[in-house]
Amino acid sequence: MAEGERQPPPDSSEDAPPATQNFIIPKKEIHTVPDMGKWKRSQAIEKLVALLNTLDRWIDETPPVDQPSRFGNKAYRTWYAKLDEEAENLVATVVPTHLAAAVPEVAVYLKESVGNSTRIDYGTGHEAAFAAFLCCLCKIGVLRVDDQVAIVFKVFNRYLEVMRKLQKTYRMEPAGSQGVWGLDDFQFLPFIWGSSQLIDHPYLEPRHFVDEKAVNENHKDYMFLECILFITEMKTGPFAEHSNQLWNISAVPSWSKVNQGLIRMYKAECLEKFPVIQHFKFGSLLPIHPVTSC
């Protein structure tokens, strides 16, 4: 072959780490408010369901203890200690043996995704850690683009079920909740994905999610409505009073506009909030380093 006809080298994929990648234990990198700039520039299903089923079973095996305080049941710390001890073994059941070196790094995000054992609270930062856990599995090739619908509506949905059980069983405090002025005490992502699921629905409109009958009849099929049902189970009083933000969103004319607005809100209220991102940990799969220019 002539020099001028040399074939270009194969294009490397940014999504899959090279075989020689050195995995590292993720650590906090956002120490001060100015460090938020790093985050904004960063590069940042059956086995998974079985993993989550194990966490669910451990809740059954760790009942709440009798204590004076109504909230923050200390049995959660016993449950969490088991996860802390077993996290790498659990992740190893999902990751193939040739990627075993990634297990300690990926396991950190699983442990970060279930709440804080000191404060016995849970919030959107923990939810983001589970999204990061799934992202890491995508980057090392365990999950693929073809899995994206199942990642959300099977794996993430099972995660939500387990988190709700944790919240109810151990009466966990909402971390960083804005109360009536926030979207939800515990979750955010399922509202984004759930609203996208309802775009162009033939009869369910945003106004219907404040209709008790519509929610009761359709919540099993739609992630957004399942979120609404959980809120109404956990809170008392008129919906417009305990969930004012959602009440206002119900007046938006279309699900596509709801979805677009929630994405903007998530960026502003979660991804760009120091109190949330200061706890996020960065490693080799989700680095803090700025994206390199093409």
TrEMBL record:
InterPro entries xref list: Phstyr_phstse_ac, PTPA_C_lid, PTPA_sf
Gene3D superfamilies per UniProt: 1.20.120.1150
Gene Ontology biological process terms from the UniProt entry: mitotic spindle organization
GO molecular function, a single term: ATP binding
Enzyme class: isomerase
One Gene Ontology cellular component: cytoplasm
EC number: 5.2.1.8
Any coiled-coil regions, as ranges: none
Region (Disordered): 1-21
Subcellular localization: Cytoplasm; Nucleus
Chief site of localization: cytoplasm
Function: PPIases accelerate the folding of proteins. It catalyzes the cis-trans isomerization of proline imidic peptide bonds in oligopeptides. Acts as a regulatory subunit for serine/threonine-protein phosphatase 2A (PP2A). Modulates PP2A activity or substrate specificity, probably by inducing a conformational change in the catalytic subunit, a proposed direct target of the PPIase. Can reactivate inactive phosphatase PP2A-phosphatase methylesterase complexes (PP2A(i)) in presence of ATP and Mg(2+).
Family named by the database record: Belongs to the PTPA-type PPIase family.
Protein name: Serine/threonine-protein phosphatase 2A activator
Organism annotation: Lynx canadensis (Canada lynx)
